[in-house]
Amino acid sequence: MSGMNPTNIAEMAGQRWVGKVRVRLDAARSRCELECENGALVDVCAWLNKERNYSYAGLIVEENPSQWELRHVFYGTRPAGWVHLLAHQPLDRSTFPSISSQVHAADWHEREAEDLFGLSFEGHPRLGDFVLHNDRWQENLGPMRRHFDGSKPVTRREPDLNWQPRRIVEAPGAFLMPIGPKFSGVTESVHFLLESVGEEVIRAIPRLFYKYRAVEKMAEGRSVNDALLLAERFAASTAFAHALAFCQAVEDISGIEVPARARALRVLLAELERLRHHAGAIQEICESTALVVANNQAAMLEEELLRLSGAFMGHRYLFGLAVPGGLSRTFEDAACREAVQQAQSILKRLDQLEKMLTTSSSFLDRLEEVGIISEQDAHNYGLVGPVARASGVTRDLRKAQPDSGYDAFAFDVAREQEGDGYARLRVLFAEARQSVRLMEQTVAALPIGPVLAANVKIKAGAALGWVEAPRGATFHWLRIDDTGRVARYRVITPSFANWHGFHLAVEKFAFQDFPIILATFDLSVAENDR
Amino acid sequence: MSQWVRKGLATGIKTTRYPACEEKAPGVSPGLPVGGEYPEAQARSLVDLCPTGALTLADHQVVVDYRRCVHCFRCRYDATAPIRWQEGYEWAAASTDGRHPTRPLDRPFEHSIHILVVDAGDCGACLNEVRQLNNPYYNMHRLGFFITPTPREADVLLVVGPVTDHMRVPLQKAYDAMPTPKRVIAVGACALSGSVFGPSFVCGSGVRDLLPVDVEVPGQPPPPLAILHGLLVAVGRRPSASLVSPANSLNAEAAKAL
Amino acid sequence: MNLSLLLQMFFWLCVAGVVLTMLIPERWCPKALAWFGSAASVAVLWSSGRVLLTGDAFQVLLWSLPTLGTFTLSLDRLSALFLAVTALVFLPVSIFSAGYLKRYLSHYSLRAFNVWYLALFASIVLILLAGDVLLFLLAWEAMSILSYLLVNFEHREETHTGAGYLMLAMGEAGTLAAAFALLLLAVTAGGLEFSALKTAIQSPGNGLRWAVFLLSFFGFGVKAGSVPFNAWLPRAHPVAPGNVSALLSGVILNLGLYGIARVNMDLLPMTLTGPGLVALIVGTVSAFVGILYATTENDLKVMLAHSSIENIGIITAGLGAGFVFTAAGHPILATIAFVAALYHMTNHSIYKALLFLGAATVDAKVGTRDLDLLGGLIRRMPWTALCFLAGALSISALPPFNGFVSEWLTLQTMLRSAELSSVGVKVVFALCGAGLALTAALAVTCFVKAFAMGFLGISRSTQVEQTTEAARSMTLPMGLLAALCLLLGVLPTFVISTLDGVLAPLTQASALNALVPPFFTSSPAHAQLPGEFAAEFHDLGAQVGQQVVPGQGLVVMHRGGAQNPVVFAMSTSYMFPVLLGLLGTTFIVVRFGLARHRCVVRQPRWDGGIRRLLPEMTYTATGFSNPVRVIFDAILRPTTKDTRETVAEHFRAAIRRCRQEVHIVDRYVVTPLRYGALKIANGLATMHHGRLNAYAAYVILTLIVVFLLTLTLSPLQ
Questions:
Q1: Which of A529, B196, C37, C673 qualifies as a FRET site for A377, CA 20 to 30 Å off?
Q2: B-contacting residues of A 471-530, CB under 8 Å?
């Protein structure tokens, strides 16, 4: 909204909820913190999200020595900045109001907080059995609490052996079609239950967190460099983006200025990763529709991009490159130009593939008007990334909050309106083109200089790092203590937001469309489960 | 329809000739550090740099345990005196506590096996590399390797990921459902040692905790050619490599026991 | 034992059974029924078997009534066939009743059941033995009423009485029409005995022929369950006790067919093509509608009821084809068509009785018939499952069971229409043949669903988990019927020759040599076969097995002429031992040869690795048949209503789906008829306004009209 910035927000909030809201402004970071009383929390969130058009990033729960601190993070398009809504409760009273009825994107965040911290959210009708499956763990384990030692296995277990999935469909002959956790050929482990009376899926329930590795807990107590390894590796298909977000959080806390060459190279690497990721997503869509030649063509392009990454940058998935303060190694200008040239030729073939796909009616038949998500639903569920852009929701962190160097370059944000599988495919192709455009711009004017800031010293503090990863908006919240170790690490991934809305696309379509809709959503279970 | 046929024919043959001859294209492998004799100061600094304990010091030698290497490249780029580096990809090793050290699977399976891939909590990179095995560059079908979705027809269980707690039951069920003879290949540093994630209250330290492993493929992630090498080792068509460098170091036995 | 003695024994057994029932305590009644019923069935079987095999006809004149003629009993081969089928069904059902009826002890009167059962048997036999119109109609009425009483046995249930009453009412309407047909014939012929009717009708006009056909076809068709008068069948079957359902489908539906056959094949043989085509089309439509509703139905007995409609449709279509061939002057083809139809009728009685007894067993032991609640019964009730499987394989027309033979014969007969001359008739045959093929495919779907959802998989309710195998008195009769299914399938040549003996006198042509040529046992110079015919088979190599292959095991449908001597042949007699041999050899080789030292490990089913596979995670019968529902949506025309409940605006609490369906026949025939009838009644009701003066005027008006009629019509007499 024009004229909306954190200062205005702070003023308006202060006026509307007099006495219930305390304001703290940080103009340098374009951020305002509103500390709300529990009674006003839901209203303020609803006002921010619905009236002021701020997107909901996520919920960060921290267990301080004396109180719980809940942080709801909202962001808008620059200059609207960031709004953090804080709620506090003493440690023995762990009930907070649920904002999910107003800001439905918070639904899964609250469920996760309940499961991992033992908090309860009043007004949320679906708490329990989210991250820790009830048929393996007892309730109220609270693994994210400070006193819980995450390195040791839990010996006393009281699982609910009679756990059953909740049935919602009441129709004669309705049954649950189970898929997974091991299904198909090479897929991630996730369990679906499709409630149906036959052909049409009436309700889809994904049961995630089969791959829960407690990354947030593991990071606590580790040095920043070791935690960086975790950040890079928990969802390695977009490793560089996550590492970048982590590094940006560290740089924000420690006040490290990243050199210009590093900023430009970071953009180059991030866009290379985006291009490779999108080629892989296109390959999966072609594979799901069983269009074999297109599948192989797209697979070849993905392999070439992987080899490109490996040959020029050392690792096929760009491991070990992003470090706090810049990059771990430098690259010659000539090498970068060569890499971009190869990317350009790959893009040419990708464009050819797109042209051929748009003329294959049997392929389009399976994508068009299948797996539709309306713009309203995309807003309500807080969907991000190419999936949201295909439904008309175009907030892209590279344009909305371009702190990592994107403001120096020109590019367009893809946008489609239909919200079906074909729209998502078109968005992937459009973004691939924009990625190469960005890569060309970076090498055209690579600044000279170091790639690592001199004298990187880790300080204590807390900050949010964000990145527009290939799948959407990613946020890493980091709190470093005085000894330079991680005190709290919170990862909010785009797959977490999009898995939440996935069931909308699948319902009312037939079983046979399910794998195709899944492929067009391009979700990562590892990224969601952490 | 014919546009696809023309496109396919025009693309030509891209498949690698491995294992008939070595694949030298750039970018097919990130390589691995090489252990051996190093000056003491360098050796000590390298060992200190390694975040997962893959590098250890033994008798003036830097011993690399590939099971723990997570490809952070600190010993290569962060060190003032970097470690030596090998650019190969034949990294898979047949486990000595498996059935048969040189030929895990019997002769009838030499040219045709069906593989069941189970994701036990991997990050997505190992799984993506396994997926690349079917692309025209590697085309594992020409070697007789096929991926099957059901364990009833599988000969080999390929596991990626550190075996999270929630996946223990499904993984065990998949293994039990396979008919004998069956072998297990653990792919990736997570599956071999839990890498940076385990062991923890929800995560194991590799497939060894749950199932008997016959072939181990290190790397994070191992490139497709390394996974292919692992499959070839499983059927006895390629010799096994060592998970420790240098291979015949005195502490190799101790390292293997880790 | 001569025939008259056997038949008398039968009737005395029935009487004795009734008398004894009155004397013994109620808890012995089922056993008594079993004994007397089986003995009576044996008597009937013996007598009808004798007539079928030896051809002795039997005629007895009973009492004479003034002006109404004499009551005649006559047993010719057609009646003998139907009697044999009746006895073959009554025998196992009687034995089954011994165990099954125990559940009614102290709820309903078992004495009444015995009396009605035996009386029903007697009335059915009397219908089939009746040699004159009056005895026929009297016995028919008795049968209608007794079957109503048996169907409505659990009379305290609301729905039961309604269903029974519908059956009775529609049955009476049909009887009326059929009676009209018979009386038309009697009026034309001047007498009431069937023998008199046959000989006395000299050259009836087309109008009479059409009238007799339509009245008898649709009149008896109500009893047989043809569309559009089948509304009573799916309602009567589920309410009747299990053994009565078996009788209903296995015996009583056949009586309708008997009526059609007797009138249109024996009393007034067909000379017009039109009626045959009507029968063919009605049969095909019946078959298709029947199986469509069976496939989408979840209650076992309702599904089997719809399947009966389907099978009766196939039989009717076969009869129709035969009528067309008779009219077109191809008597051998007509015989083949009738053989196919009557073979299918026999088979249907056997396997439908088997399936109904199976459903009754499941209902009695588990307590529910809903396929969505059953599952896994094969572990609890293995013998029932095995017999049900035999029935399901038979009804799906899979070799080497009997359903395969009759279905094969019917479909091949449709193909023989190529020998007719009229293009229109050939088109109708082609369409009907395609329709019957579609019903055969749907029948397989339906019974895969029934067996798989009911007996295989995981139990879907606790009732199933606690059930046990039924008593031997219930499984033995099912086993008997299953064995009969196999026997009738593996020995088609004997059945065909018997049926040929039944039909040859009616169509004046024998199809035995066409269907079961004795070429294996004949040399090329055999006098029985025409020279070119035998020569063709010789060229095909038929003489190869001459000394080696025994018997006449091959059923042949020879087609084409000299230019195109195409032959279709089928032999379940040879297939069966070969199949057994192959399976046995493989088993022995693998078990004692290849896998002798292997140990077999049992692991639970692979379910994708989920921790617990719940019964609600398996396909239900509704889900299995949903594709059929979707494809034929235009015919089924369901109305669905979805309601959604949400909590806190975004969280869904419940999604409800209500689905309602009205049967297509109800929609297009019954509802308009009812609407029309009500309209007429309402119109007539305007006359009932209670004013005496108007009523007096009605009386005078009627008198005047009657006077005028007699005055104008009397000179014509």
A1: A529
A2: 524-527, 529
